[in-house]
Amino acid sequence: MKMDVLLGLQWGDEGKGKVVDVLAPQYDVVARFQGGPNAGHTLEFDGIKHVLHQIPSGIFRSKLVNIIGNGVVLDPVVLRKEIQGLGKFNINFNENLYISKKATIIIPTHKLLDAAYEKSKGDKKIGSTLKGIGPTYQDKIGRVALRVGDILAEDFGAKYNALVEKHKTILSFYDFPLDELPELEKVFFESIEFFKTLNLIDSEYQVNEHLSKGQKVLAEGAQGSLLDIDFGSYPFVTSSSTMTAGACTGLGVAPARIGEVYGIFKAYCTRVGSGPFPTELFDQDGEDMRKEGNEFGSTTGRPRRCGWIDLPALKYSIMINGVTQLFMMKADVLNIFDNIKVCTHYQLPDGSFVDRLSYELNDQEAKPVYKTIKGWNQSLAHVTTYDDFPSELRNYVSLLEDELGVPIKMVSVGPDRKQTILR
Ligand code: GDP
Ligand code: IMO
Ligand code: MG
């Protein structure tokens, strides 16, 4: 059996959590492969709305195994809170949640470092979620990080202290106050004791064994391709590999074992945090999109920047991920518009037109070139099958499919599990 991968093609928050939840009954296992508590994946069903940060979005389906892979950076404090927050759902964490011993741990000083680095950048700040993601991945690559398996060893305290001493040296260079640290450490060590009671495993064996037994595994991406450490709008990116290749390294699954790649995108674009966003709207349309789409961060509550759909960016994400099926989210948010714009190219300051995300594009003023199509301008509340779609929405879907060259297999018309139209 091959492992399918589900990931965001834009700047995150495309609706990945909802789609994982919808697809979950078809799978035996859902596994996170990168990112950490910077993610916020929202699920809505039976009148319940829940945001998951580190726990895979298959957790509400009782028969599923959920795995947090080695590529994830994990905050034990957030994990404990998340598990406690799920208390009312009667989830059997002993049977349904497994965590890689090779995943990296976020410690309190990683969060202080995140804040210190952001502060030092002034108006060049990335707009990080300040969850400690960047500094933790830095330590992982620098070969000094703590891993989940380390918490079981007797010398964990000593290893922790050695790392904190390094961090304190850096923090003193930035003149960053440490007043908060004792309280943060107290909660951290309480959470570590709780952490020890969870299933800590070598997840690469478990995932491959599930596949070998013919079971179906879905890899759940966090963030989006345009926030990828290599291919995103660097330096305004996150610190992990958010793409299909990241699912291989973040779970220990060989490239030849990748099956379907589901690319999730919104019917428009949003971005939270700093960095280039060619189709960003600063007018009433942008305001209306934010209001209609309730575009406020699931993790930080920050207003999301909004704009029209960007085809060059989507084509790029499809290319680097090998997307085989597209899922379009939040079509209902465009109900309010008489006309809908689709960015097909960018115009550069020298007057030339491009449709590639080149290295140079990042630092240039790229003006979007739009094709305008008629909107459907009506509610989609009644829609339960593709045949119910207004003709203008069908045209929009066909236009995108023609441009992107990949079939759109699902259109989402509302946040609830049920508001999902399969094609
Ligand atoms: P993720 O990080 O990719 O899982 O996405 P988020 O959960 O951060 O953000 C997506 C938001 O859109 C959440 O509030 C979802 O409940 C909501 N959502 C998902 N699909 C739809 C949809 O089709 N229509 C509307 N209106 N909201 C949706
Ligand atoms: P999900 O999984 C949207 C953004 C931050 C910031 C940049 C770097 O819910 O789609 P970091 O905390 O990683 O140092 O922040 O990346 N960012 C996200 N934006 N959705 C996310 O996750 C994000 N995770 C990080 O806003 O611009
Ligand atoms: Mg999110």
UniProtKB/TrEMBL annotation:
Keywords from the UniProt entry: Cytoplasm, GTP-binding, Ligase, Magnesium, Metal-binding, Nucleotide-binding, Purine biosynthesis
Binding residues for GTP: 12-18, 40-42, 304, 330-332, 412-414
Subcellular location: Cytoplasm
GO cellular component: cytoplasm
GO MF annotation: an example: GTP binding
InterPro entries reported in the protein's UniProt record: Adenylosuccin_syn_GTP-bd, Adenylosuccin_syn_Lys_AS, Adenylosuccinate_synth_dom1, Adenylosuccinate_synth_dom2, Adenylosuccinate_synth_dom3, Adenylosuccinate_synthetase, P-loop_NTPase
Annotated IMP binding sites: 13-16, 38-41, 129, 143, 223, 238, 302
Cofactor(s) for this UniProt protein: Mg(2+)
Residues given in the record as substrate binding sites: 298-304
Reactions the enzyme catalyzes: IMP + L-aspartate + GTP = N(6)-(1,2-dicarboxyethyl)-AMP + GDP + phosphate + 2 H(+)
EC number: 6.3.4.4
Main location: cytoplasm
Amino-acid positions noted as binding Mg(2+) in the UniProt annotation, renumbered to this chain: 13, 40
A single GO BP: IMP metabolic process
UniProt entry tagged with the keyword Nucleotide-binding: yes
One Pfam family, short name: Adenylsucc_synt
Free-text cofactor note: Binds 1 Mg(2+) ion per subunit.
Active site per database record: 13, 41, 140
Pathway this chain belongs to: Purine metabolism; AMP biosynthesis via de novo pathway; AMP from IMP: step 1/2
The family this protein is said to belong to: Belongs to the adenylosuccinate synthetase family.
Subunit and interaction comment: Homodimer.
Function in brief: Plays an important role in the de novo pathway of purine nucleotide biosynthesis. Catalyzes the first committed step in the biosynthesis of AMP from IMP.
Entries under HAMAP family matching the protein: Adenylosucc_synth
Protein name: Adenylosuccinate synthetase
Organism in which the protein naturally occurs: Belliella buryatensis
